[in-house]
Amino acid sequence: MANNQSSPQTVPESISESSQSYGKPASRGGLPDVIKVDGVKSLVLDSENLVLNAAPPTSTIPLYNVLWVELAGQTLTIDYAKYVGKHRVQAAQWIFNVADADTPDVKTWADNLLTRAYGPAKRCKRAKVLVNPHAGPGGAQKKWDVDCEPLFKAARMPIDVVKTERQGQAVDIAQAIDVDAFDTIVTCSGDGLAHEVFNGLGSRPDAFHALQTIAVSHIPCGSGNAMSCNLYGTYRPSLAALAIIKGVETPFDLVSITQGDRRLLSFLSQALGVVAESDLGTEHLRWMGGARFTVGFLQRIFQKKCYPCDLAVKVEIEDKHGVKEHYRQKMSNASATNLGEGPNAAPVESGSSPDAHQGLPPLRYGTINDALPEGWESISSDTMGNFYCGNMAYMAADANFFAAACANDGLMDLVCVDGDVSVGSQLSMLLSVENGQFFDNPLVSYKKITAYRITPRNQKDGYISIDGEKVPFEPFQAEIHQGLGKVISKRGGYEAAGPTNWDKITIATCKKAALFVALGAVAPIDVTARAVAWVAQAVRRQLHAFINGIVACLTFSSYFFKITFDGQQWLR
What we know:
It comes from Colletotrichum gloeosporioides (Anthracnose fungus). Among the domains are: 19-118, PH-domain like (Roll), CATH 2.30.29; 129-246, Probable inorganic polyphosphate/atp-NAD kinase, domain 1 (Rossmann fold); 510-563. Helix content is 30%, strand content 28%. The chain is built from 13 helices and 26 strands. Strands 12, 13, 14, 15, 16, 17, 20, 21, 22, 23 and 24 form an 11-stranded antiparallel sheet that branches. The model is unreliable at 1-29, 340-344, 507-549 and 551-572 (pLDDT under 50).
């Protein structure tokens, strides 16, 4: 008799695909699809689901959720991830008696089920698990113990768990780990632990081999959880664990940062301005989770603060139309491979002759201490409000700042926003991040680049964020290395939706837009202006309701908080 039988489930959140999300269903080639169990019942293997036919009920498990199949004597055990809520799964089993278990058809059926459940994903991934019990609002250890470890064990994953006790411990672990003994380092934390792991691997004498060999993955237990949102489309620990189990190794771009005499790696983002301050300036509010970023942002936009700086950029794609066309081409190539962006799609920058003892790749543009390379675009800004460069799309669950980011296109996405704009415009940008319209906001500059140098000026101190970690408030230089790292992703790329209407952009569209600009076409610009005015009016209505809501919330919570807009917030 089957244990823990479940009725047909509505597939939750981002986990909306079966194992066949990797591509088209594999040809069955005459293999058996149906076996008899418990005498009168049958198990049917179709293109996307495992179906138990009984009288009644009929129960279904998506192949994506099947973790393991074992045939021992006449007992067939199927481990799977059972939905126990809209955004949570847990390990469960179906156990059946199979009278003709010794026949080739039954054994072949069991093997076929496991093969189709995993697709191109590696089974039984060997995992080094790092749990940071102090991440974000806390609770990482419980999330691992309750939500994730049982799933890994049900999938027969060999695991070695370490609870981190101090900052920097993950660097030491990554420096010393035998990269050939594990398939992935799983970070149960916020994004900071992944930053440590990449830099630990990058500081080894065999950095190139280490970064190319062992994949980094993420169980979301922090405030931002950007890595999980991008690679797995979720910030729920159990759904991320399932995505790691069923995920594929994917080449991943990394960014070298040079500052002073130091070189480090960035996997997520670099920021100077309001985003950096909203993150690093709200460390005392970690108990709030991701809401602390919104609080920090609101505090600072009312100041209309600017961050003077000198910026030099190696621009590869200058305008938003070109960025969308680049994204469209990447996604078209990915569709042709039937595997996201393709785990083997990215060329790797390795230097002249890579070997097991090679360190990080040489820098193509030198360091921050070298002369500025020729051909870079120089910008001197007195009114920079936000300098933000990203390697992933989501910076938090509701913050898709870099909609056109790709896992291994060899390009960084650069966003710049003027700080000398109205508070209403700043609030509209905040709203546009949450509703997916940030990329198309006319106040946002969006470019694809390969390197840059930024030099703060007229400030003695401030915040610079690298992957959410504070670094000295000094000039730094960045350049990207295509496919240097490796991650476990759900489908070979990012789960973000991309810029709005990216699939409608063509080269002809880009040329037409450029022609309008070159000729000073009045009619299209006038139409655009009217459209922008209409949108602005709609946004103002939304902002009015939004601000009223904020005022009501602040009034209600004034007993507990004192919030000022001079960059300080104190608990009573």
